[in-house]
Write a structure and sequence with these properties.
The chain is an alpha/beta fold. The chain is built from 15 helices and 25 strands. α1 (about 5-15) crosses α3 (about 60-75). The mean pLDDT is about 90.
Length: about 500
């Protein structure tokens, strides 16, 4: 089936079930499906047909989900765009994807005006003013058709559009449903940005596929609204990123209130993705709230979930769990041969969730997908039980005098220091064909920690070649929309600073 057909099926099976709860409004599966049909008719009226790319630049709202499914029902391909991008960056995606229509929300009108000035051939349309037509049929085609182009930034060069098919996304939702035991009785909290692959698959496609209810918030701010929604809406699955869980684990809560929170908590499990989750955060969070915090792993090119720690099986802190059902993983060395359990190499993935390829990038596709295996660019090891441990990004690897240094190993040690809130280590060229490692540290408010104290601690835990050559203290980090630290910006700043 296609994704839009899944929604149609849910509207027939569960017509009066609440699909989306947004602020004070509730929309049933039947109502959402009707809205999708009307908008799809309008899109067809605008000339959208099979394979036509339509961009979405919208803030979190039910309209975002309606737009996404309407594009698919019209036979088109959705192109979600990060709302934090500049007009120049958005223009590149519009040009590369060949999108001739951009749907946007009112809060982004100023940015869209500037984008429109750069892209005369792209029609922009406010969601609230989209034409609606009755009597459209499903868009046709099959599950191997591309459903979405998701642009990944990578570490160098321009972003590439990962082509994810209906089958890719549905298979990923099906496997996640089995791994997380989500049913139509569950209520999933959505507050992360919808343009992110992790958010849309786990917080939208997965609930729609299982017939669950999506409780949507405009954003993560104010954070008090997120907390209140957990109890008021009786949330059973909380989907977040490490930054959110770190805040919850450290936020000061009086003991009586902590006891009440644990007693009233309806959550079955909390899921973390999009970035590495420190073991200390898992320990502190579970100790405080008594709810399992499951770390998973994925990447856009895999629709995006690859693995997750099991809800009812063995959970291993610092591991991202075993692969989800139907997905195969392996670790290979530089020669492309598989390495024994416990040995670090590049993680490769095979399964129905692996993308079709990069849009109009045949060479990049051949480099990334070989013999059906997706080469992730992540350095990892797999233990005897099949659990995956992500060591670092292959491109984040720092080579110091011929020795491999994995920044995450160093960062995990630094995070154990009580005064450290966050840290990130990058490598920069030293002019001799090697690299020097630079550690950036953000201290907790009110804490003092010297470079000498950090080095003194690390000497007892790291080999000399792994020690950071330079240490920089920062007030904050450049971040992506999901709170992930932008290491490319740190490298750039260090190079510019000499």
């Amino acid at each position: 089936m296609r994704l839009d057909e899944i929604l149609s099926q849910r509207s027939r099976d569960l017509p009066d079930k609440v699909c989306i709860k947004f602020e004070k409004q509730r929309y049933t599966y039947a109502e959402i499906n009707d809205q999708v049909g009307l908008m799809a008719g309008g899109l067809i009226h605008e000339g959208v047909g099979r394979g036509e790319r339509v961009a979405i630049l919208m803030e979190n709202s039910p309209g975002y989900i309606v737009s996404y499914f309407a594009i698919l029902r019209a036979g088109g391909i959705a192109v979600p765009i990060n709302t934090m991008l500049t007009p120049e960056e958005i223009s590149y995606i519009l040009g590369d994807s060949g999108a001739r229509l951009l749907i946007y929300s009112g809060g982004l009108s100023d940015k869209v005006r500037r984008v429109s000035e750069r892209n005369a051939g792209v029609k922009v349309c406010l969601f609230d003013e989209m034409p609606q037509k009755v009597g459209t049929a499903d868009g046709g085609g099959g599950d191997e058709d591309v459903a979405v182009l998701l642009y990944t930034s990578g570490t160098t060069g321009f972003p590439k559009g990962a082509m994810l098919t209906h089958r890719n996304l549905i298979s990923n939702a099906d496997a996640c449903m089995k791994a997380m035991h989500i049913t139509h009785r569950d209520r999933v909290l959505l507050f992360l940005p919808l343009f992110h692959s992790f958010t849309f698959t786990v917080c939208v496609i997965l609930p729609v596929y299982s017939g669950a209810t999506i409780v949507m918030l405009p954003s993560v701010r104010p954070f008090s609204r997120v907390i209140n929604s957990i109890f008021r809406e009786r949330i059973t699955f909380f989907i977040g990123v490490p930054t959110v869980y770190n805040i919850l684990a450290k936020k000061r809560i009086p003991f009586p209130l902590r006891y009440v929170l644990r007693y009233l908590m309806s959550i079955k499990a909390c899921i973390s993705g999009a970035a590495a989750l420190p073991v200390e955060t898992i320990y502190n969070f579970e100790k405080r709230f008594g709810v399992p915090l499951l770390e998973g792993y994925g990447l856009t090119e895999a629709s995006p979930v690859v693995s997750v720690n099991p809800l009812d099986g063995l959970r291993k802190p610092s591991s991202v769990g075993p692969p989800i059902p139907g997905v195969e993983v392996a670790v290979v060395g530089e020669d492309g041969e598989r390495v024994p359990p416990g040995v670090v190499g590049e993680l490769i993935v095979k399964g129905p969730n692996v993308m079709k390829g990069y849009f109009n990038k045949e060479e990049a596709t051949r480099e990334t997908i070989r013999d059906g295996w997706l080469y992730t660019g992540d350095m990892a090891r797999i233990d005897e039980d099949g659990y995956i441990y992500i060591v670092d990004r292959k491109k984040d690897l720092i080579i110091v005098d011929g020795m491999n240094v994995y920044p995450r190993e160093v960062e995990d040690q630094v995070l154990r220091l009580r005064g450290v809130e966050e840290c990130a280590m990058v490598g920069v060229p030293d002019g001799r064909g090697s690299e020097v490692s630079v550690l950036f540290v953000r201290l907790k408010e009110g804490c003092q920690l010297s470079e000498g104290e950090i080095r003194g601690y690390l000497k007892g835990h790291l080999a000399p070649f792994k020690m950071p050559r330079r240490i920089r203290f920062v007030k904050d980090f450049p971040r992506t929309a999901t709170g992930k630290i932008k290491k490319t910006e740190l490298r750039k700043a260090e190079l510019q600073g000499g």
